[in-house]
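Entry:
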Amino acid sequence: ALAGASGAGAATLQQVGVFERPMYVTSAPNNPDRLFVVERRGRIVEVQKGATSTFADLSSLTTCCTGEGGLQSIALSPDFGSSGRFYVFYTGSEGEIQIAEMRAAGNFAPLASLRPLLTIPHPDADNHYGGQLQIGPEGLLYASTGDGGGGNDQFANAQDLTSLLGKLLRIDPNPAGVLPYTVPPGNPFAGGDPGDDPIWSFGLRNPFRFSFDRESGATLIGDVGQKAREEVDYAPPGGGAGVNYGWACREGLIAGPRAAEPECTAPPAVFTPPIFDYPQDGPEGPCAIVGGYVVRDRNLGDLYGRYLYGDFCGEQLRSFSLINPEASDRGEGVPIAQLTSFGEDACGRLYTVQETGRVALLVGNDGAAACPAAGQARERERSFVGIRAQGRRVKKGKRAQITAWVSPCAGRRGEPVKLMRGRAHLGTRRLDRACTVRFRPKISRRAKFRALIAENASYLTATSRPLQIKILHKKKAQRRSKSSGVER
């Protein structure tokens, strides 16, 4: 089922070490050579210059290892070097999903530093927890959750916006009022039903691994299928808010097991299909996709810019181009068994994690790519600037609501962003904690807008793509006034 062209064999695996049931690997944001390996039973192991030490131990809190429970992943705050803050995703004593903050003191994070952020009940099955944490391009914390387990989304959680299961969640982990976190501006369901404020997108079965393209900021989700299809879901840079990926109304590109149920048919739901799916192929074939990363390590030859993924039951790493995923899918000739995760360090180098215990670095024919050491001056990078409008057509003389955001967020908060119409400078706003700004220009004629941010010590000048706002003419305005929807 996954036959096709093979890669040029430009990559091999270089072993980092062997661990006890490893689940994930990442690096310190300010030091790519300081690795952290997550073990399922609850230990986080630090690896530096070949030496290992226990960085944190949550085994007394973590339920493991019946079903799919355990310590699933971690994410380190962009200011980890100074604050020691990082975030953990694990299953608790009642099988519930726990997302919490911890703080390191030197090279160790005491259990007493744990501060709960989200507790999500998961009472009825011991599978489909999701399990990924990532810091998004705007500096916020994202988490993926499974649908609650069992088969056929038996509890109908994925389409239920009162449940946090079967979702991609987004929060600012800084407390606000009585909450241990802040609901970021732009969360699509904030202020609706109680408890749905953290939801970013929904309709997922078991999004065990997802990632952000470190160059563009696009979101890619590897969602594990049931009995028919495995899929990769995609949201463009700055996108994904309120998106419904379809489970269990859809499974990949085909009808799902609840396609005839009310949540799938009344009112008619709008599903965003995956950019890529593939069939399961019996007991010896694929069985569970392991989502990876868009390759940004130039040492990996023509893998650069391709999405790397694998399958727990597969036999090798695979990749495809985001331009034409189906036609470009290929095996990379890198054999691997029982793949459980990928990881990415601060320099964009990629790692593999196997159920067998092996963690390895993906290297090119010339060996591992050079990566500046901690504290060493780096070449300035280019930020990504995105721009969107709430309504692409506006009545003449009215104001448009335009939002711009900048990625990466680290080091850019509080910096000025300019809004331009042609060569005219319309105004300047400073980036908030989420590296977002909002403008409300008056629209007198059709116009194209751009947002730009100046260079600083770490980043070059960057400009968004053009955003066109059109005049909504009187007759069209009258027709649209009868509709409650907002054109986007």
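The radius of gyration is 22 Å.
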